Amino acid sequence: MKRDIHLKNIREKNINDKIISYIVMGVIIVAIIIISLLLYSQKINNDVKDETMKLDQMTDMMGETTENDAETESASTEIGKTVEESKEEVEQKKEIVENETMQNTSNNESVQSSNVSKNTTQNTTTEEKQETQEVKELTFQRPVEGEIVREFAQDNLVYSETLDEWVTHNGIDIKADKTTVVKAAEAGVVKSIKNDPRYGLTIVIEHDDTYQTVYSNLLTSEFVVEGETVEKGQSIGTVGNSAVFEIADEPHLHFEILKDSIAVDPSIYIK
């Protein structure tokens, strides 16, 4: 009896275990089915979205194509108009260029004629200046006859026995005995008679507002006075030995020529 009850209990337990396992399996299957359905529905939604996006993109592309076509048509229309109108513009430009060319030609001719007249005027002025300069170029005679014992020297130095050193020399020294008469090298006006601290008794004669002659180391200047007009070769003084800077030298005339107040070499101008 007990055995039968035990066997019965075992059977019921086995049945219950099977039922529970079937229920669990059923639940798992149902869960799998539900999950599969959810995944499938999500995929369908994604596919629908992709299709919708593709359709939108195609629509946009079609719209852009339409706009491009419209722009192409308008551009081609404008090009067609420009081709027709450009001929007139080319003709107008040709006329403008021809007018400018004619104006430039006339301007160049006027400029050339102006330049010719200017050159003629300049040449005339230059010739007049040259003639004026030629008139002003004077020739001077020797104020005394004698040997030149010291040359003009501005670039090269000469030795001074009085100063015992090498110095510049703005004139020439012409050897002559004391009391030898000194004559005007060219006609002019006596500008000054003075005692120069370096070159002693000095007479300055002005010629044509350009040249001046200077006669120094004189003994006397008794033949002329300041402001007097003198002729070429006229006596103006006598040779002496009054130049402090040349006191150690033999009696001589220190003679200078100034051109525009600048000392020049008298040897070039003495004839």
Overall pLDDT score: 76
Note poorly predicted spans: 70-81, 131-135
Main sheet specs: 10 strands, antiparallel
The strand count comes to 12
| Percent strand | 25-35%
Distance between the termini: 184 Å
Outline, from the CA principal axes? rod-shaped
Rg, rounded, reads: 63 Å
The count of helical stretches stands at: 2
The ordered H/E elements are HEEEEEEEEEEEEH
Helical amount: 40-55%
Structural class: alpha+beta
- Tally the structural domains: 2
Structure description:
The protein is an alpha+beta fold. It folds into two domains: 1-136, no CATH class; 148-269, Glucose Permease (Domain IIA) (Distorted Sandwich). The chain is 51% helix and 25% strand. The protein has helices spanning 2-136, 266-269; strands at 148-150, 153-160, 165-169, 172-175, 181-183, 188-196, 200-207, 211-220, 229-230, 235-239, 252-259, 262-264. The strands form two sheets. Strands 1, 4, 5, 6, 7, 8, 9, 10, 11 and 12 form a ten-stranded antiparallel sheet that branches. Strands 2-3 form a two-stranded antiparallel sheet.
Mind sketching the topology for me?
Elements: H1 2-136, E1 148-150, E2 153-160, E3 165-169, E4 172-175, E5 181-183, E6 188-196, E7 200-207, E8 211-220, E9 229-230, E10 235-239, E11 252-259, E12 262-264, H2 266-269
Antiparallel strand pairs: 1-4, 2-3, 4-11, 5-10, 6-7, 6-9, 7-8, 8-10, 8-11, 11-12
